[in-house]
Design brief:
The structure holds 2 protein chains of 2 kinds. Chain A is of the alpha/beta class. Chain A is built from 6 helices and 11 strands. In chain A, the strands form 2 sheets. Chain A has a 7-stranded mixed sheet with strand order 6-7-8-3-9-10-11. Chain A has a 4-stranded antiparallel sheet with strand order 2-1-4-5. Chain A is globular. Chain B is an alpha+beta fold. Helices cover 64% and strands 15% of the residues of chain B. Chain B is built from 21 helices and 10 strands. Chain B has a 6-stranded mixed β-barrel with strand order 2-3-8-5-7-6, surrounded by 4 helices. In chain B, helix 6 packs antiparallel against helix 7 and helix 17 runs antiparallel to helix 20. The longest helix of chain B is centred in the last third of the chain and has 39 residues. Chain B is flat and about 105 Å long. Chain B starts with a helix and ends with a helix. Classes of the chains: A alpha/beta, B alpha+beta. Chains A and B meet through helix 2 and helix 3 of A and helix 1, helix 16, helix 17 and helix 21 of B.
Amino acid sequence: MSEKPILRAVGVKKSYYAGKRELPVLRGIDFSMHKGECVLMYGPSGAGKSTLLHILGLIDVPTEGTLYLEEENITAIPANRRAQLRNEKFGFVFQFYHLLPDFSALENVMLPLLMRNGLLGWFRGKKKAKKRAEELLEIVGLKDRIHHKPSELSGGERQRVAIARALITEPQVLFLDEPTGNLDTKTADSILTLLKEMKNRFSQTFLMATHNKALVSFGTRVINIVDGKIVGEESDGAPKS
Amino acid sequence: MWRLFVALRYLKRRLTTYIATAGVTIGVMVLVIVVSVMGGFQREFHEKLRGINAHITVESYDFSIQDAETLMNAIRRVKGVAAVAPFVQNIVLVKGMYVDFGFIKGIEPDMEAEVGKLRQYLLRSEEALAVVEYENTRDHLKAYEYGIAQIKREMEAFEEGSARRRFAEFALIRFKSQYEELSRKLERLKEPYQKALNRAPFSDEEIIRLFCFRKGETPGVVVGIELMKHYNLRVGDEILLMTATRMNLEKIQQEKFVVLGAFKTGVFDTDFRYLYGLVDEVKKFIGVEGIGGISVKLEDFKDAERLKDAIQVAIEPFEKESSRLSVKTWMELNRTLLQAVQMEKWLLSFIIFFIVVVAGFGIVSILTMMVAEKTRDIGILKSLGGTTKGVMGVFLIAGTFIAAAGSALGLSLGLTFVYRINEVAAFIEKLTGYHPFPRDVYYLDKIPTEVDALELAYVVVPTLLLSFVFALYPAIRASRLHPVEALRYE
């Protein structure tokens, strides 16, 4: 792959502190991914997958190490710029859906786009966002439930809303943190089918963290994380040296 | 803009929102009512003071204005001056049934009527009688009311059937019958009294006749209604006045005056202490040659401060030949009184503003609750690209919105109440038989109100600012939440 990586991490470490005791979670991660890739982070729970996902997605900051977004150093950019990048370049799907309970499915999906609009052009922007959100909700198969609140939706439906919300900004990278971890097998399968469909439809770049072996087939590239370190990597099923 | 969208959703259909809003509403409503009613009283009070004092008074303290006519002409030429009138005023001792001090003011009645509100204040002799009789009966009735209550209280202590008890019972019966008789009398007197209060102003002819026509050579005075009541005077009675001047301290002047009539301004002190006479007679009585001062009426009393300087300039040539003249506006003459009223209003508003402060604490607590409840939402908003400022904005807007809604509601309720305050008072009277604003205590037919946009702004703007400041703390706390921690929060 000669193309420059979309996301690159060099020597990323992260520790938490319990009083004076240091609890290292990530012990030096070197990682990069390219546009169109579908990377799966596999490892047992507590290995640091989520933390790495949060750091790469600019939700959390590393204790040490450097991050590059399209080869631009973004390790120490100000908080407002980080927030802007989260909104414009990244999308997130979490294990517990993390929908806003006071808003309907439609409004939840619209929100990332609404955050971009100021006072001027609010109503025009809202109309546009609504149209796009309706399209996406139809794609994820929730056409009839767009006005329901999250509490009126099943787990699978909630996760579909979350996926639609993550996709509405047309993110460069979609981060998924155990997207099926809270669902029964059947629902999980349908969510995976949906994600595959999205992958093909939008040629979406994915980075998914999971401890579920069954999902390994989903990735074009799988990296193994154990105890805060990358211990192995395989591409399309074949181990990579 | 999305902050407003989210904030409004958080506020929607939540009991706590309504409670916090109600707090602000009550505070603002009460403030609006108090400020408006106090403003109304202040206006009435100012009007009364302006009725008693001329807008501007030019005064010489040693009665040295010899050529009053030229001086008055000079003042008349100042633009904005509507009318002028000469006067001579001095302190007197009034000797009748008691001894009290007062002020005698010698005037040219027809000119004075143009400067002040003398026309409205003067009473015809039958009107004066009606007022005196009614008010005396009313005071009597109050005394009986008090006496009956007193006897009833004391009776409890006496043994049943004892001589003292029987005596008290007998007294009570007698008191009650007298009370009822007085009540009937008061009822009878009510109509002429109302008529007297709503009397037509005196015409020029009536004024001249009142002051100038009399039997005999005795000088005459028009006295205030309170003095008349206190000294039990009737028109035609004589009173003894004594005076002395600064220029001639050893000599105490003493002269009998006949009561020509009465006036009622509604200000107790004026109605008790002021006696009006003809300028020439008063001059002779206090033993001076010149005039004491000139009362000036302006076209618009609000120009007083500005025109004072113009008048000062206009009268400068006259100051050289005599001693200095002082020029004072009606506000300067009553400075302490006006300041007291202003201070009262300010202080009351300040105290009541604490209701708003308490409402502000309500906002803090519901926002703090909201932040705790919405911790996960805050994490979600941040992961979707919400900035620190953005999250802070959500809660600031929520807090300010409560204050704004409360202010708007309080303002409209308060104003509705103010505009219908007399109907409310009438309703309360009907319900309890007791008027919350007794007419005879305040000398006013209606509860006065004054709605002033600036003063409403003084209520609303601090309320909004205060709520904003109070909302800052929970908002900052919310914005500082770490997204990872917030997302993990269950």
